[in-house]
């Protein structure tokens, strides 16, 4: 790796100041993507600003009809939280499926969302539940946050501080893992909201990144059962196609994972 300066601020204000004063500063928490990128010399930030120890970014709380999760919470924190498991068990289950134990104990919610890997798990639940991403500057609705593969609406130096999830009536997540990496080749988060709406977030399958499936949502709104999804034909037009699976294969995986998620709820 190239030479870099490492900083471990104790507050959000200090982190923002360090970023603003660095010639090419990068945030780091779990480092699951940035550190390997630096080791391959594909990135050479002048400064690393570590937000993993900032207390205000590590809390988890049920607040009214929402669950608020700090951006520096690890996947393991989310998966094992009694608050999350009690309010949104589908979210806790999703977090427990990410990577392996080493990844789950280092990787963070905020880092995953800011990186927006097309095969990451969290985007599916964030988009499906219509979560709100809080930063040190503003609040961003999930529908406005994701902007295609590895791209978000975050501005330079903007720090994700927490994510607020509406609590659904019921939810579940199912994914087909890439056998080598554990990333989702297709991951589907299904939720019935308290107002009766059905929302479905899909990750891993599309070259455009995470998306909502209107056709699956409509089918489940008409009849909440795996059988309602069976007649659907999911379009392969925008699906990824690579050595791991064709576009048609991934389109079929979306359908299969959606059926499994609904069956898991039942």
Automatic annotation (TrEMBL):
Pfam families assigned: FAD_binding_5
Domain FAD-binding PCMH-type: 1-170
UniProt keyword Oxidoreductase, yes or no: yes
Keyword flag Flavoprotein: yes
Keywords annotated in UniProt: FAD, Flavoprotein, Oxidoreductase
SUPFAM superfamilies named among the record's database cross-references: CO dehydrogenase flavoprotein C-terminal domain-like, FAD-binding/transporter-associated domain-like
InterPro entries, alphabetized: CO_DH_flav_C, CO_DH_flav_C_dom_sf, Diverse_Substr_Oxidored, FAD-bd_PCMH, FAD-bd_PCMH-like_sf, FAD-bd_PCMH_sub1, FAD-bd_PCMH_sub2, Mopterin_DH_FAD-bd
Gene3D superfamilies for this protein: 3.30.465.10, CO dehydrogenase flavoprotein, C-terminal domain, Uridine Diphospho-n-acetylenolpyruvylglucosamine Reductase, domain 2
SMART domains noted in UniProt: CO_deh_flav_C
GO molecular function, one term: FAD binding
Protein name: Carbon-monoxide dehydrogenase medium subunit
Lineage of the organism: Bacteria, Pseudomonadati, Pseudomonadota, Alphaproteobacteria, Hyphomicrobiales
């Amino acid at each position: 790796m190239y030479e870099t300066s490492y900083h471990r601020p104790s507050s959000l204000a200090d982190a923002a100041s360090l970023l603003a004063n660095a010639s090419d500063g990068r945030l780091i928490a779990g480092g699951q993507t940035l550190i390997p990128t630096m080791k391959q010399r594909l990135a050479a930030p002048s400064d690393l600003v570590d937000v993993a120890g900032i207390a205000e970014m590590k809390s988890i709380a049920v607040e009214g009809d929402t669950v608020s999760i700090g951006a520096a919470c690890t996947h393991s924190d989310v998966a094992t939280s009694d608050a999350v498991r009690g309010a949104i068990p589908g979210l806790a289950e999703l977090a427990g499926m990410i990577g392996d134990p080493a990844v789950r104990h280092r990787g963070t919610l905020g880092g995953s969302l800011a990186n927006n890997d097309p095969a990451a798990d969290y985007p599916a639940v964030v988009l499906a539940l219509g979560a709100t991403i809080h930063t040190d500057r503003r609040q961003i609705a999930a529908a406005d946050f994701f902007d295609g593969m590895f791209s978000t609406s975050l501005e330079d130096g903007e720090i994700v501080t927490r994510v607020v999830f509406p609590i659904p009536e019921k939810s579940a997540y199912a994914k087909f893992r890439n056998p080598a990496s554990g990333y989702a080749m297709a991951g589907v988060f299904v939720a019935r909201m308290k107002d009766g709406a059905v929302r479905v977030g899909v990750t891993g399958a599309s070259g455009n990144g995470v998306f909502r499936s209107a056709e699956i949502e409509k089918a489940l709104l008409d009849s909440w059962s795996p059988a309602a999804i069976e007649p659907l034909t999911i379009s392969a037009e925008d699906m990824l196609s690579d050595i791991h699976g064709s576009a048609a294969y991934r389109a079929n995986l979306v359908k299969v994972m959606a059926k499994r998620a609904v069956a898991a709820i039942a």
